[in-house]
Design a protein that fits this description.
Layout (H helix, E strand, L loop, with lengths): L1 E8 L2 H13 L5 E5 L6 H10 L6 E6 L5 H7 L8 E4 L3 H9 L7 H12 L5 H6 L13
Parallel strand pairs: 1-2, 1-3, 3-4
Length: about 140
Amino acid sequence: MKKIVIMTHAGLAQGAKQTVQFLAGNCELTAVSCFTEEMHPDHYIETLLQNKKPEETLIILTDLKGGSVNQKVAQHCLQHDFYLITGFNLALLLELTVADEAMINPAYLREIVEKSKQEIVLMNDALQDLPANEDFDFFEA
């Protein structure tokens, strides 16, 4: 079973989850807002990893590479069986959500991370590069 957990500062995780469910329908995502009165990541991570079943594919997404949430999760990376992706965006989250569990492996994750990086574009430049009088369709890229 594929389990995706979004762990972020404040309400970013819940917003990302709601947006994916709006676009892709009801899907299994867990959103965790860390460093609130109710949630400190240390306890959540320890519980999550203790309860992880061997057949489960666990993917944890965090917001900032240098952020405290990612640092807390990264401490467990080498001792436990899960994938950690930091700096996620909506493109990456959607790709992971619809991916078949059998596809999830390090090579596939590296591929979708690279694809999601290409979704970050300064549109002013992209629009300047279009020939005059041409309609633009960014879905063809």
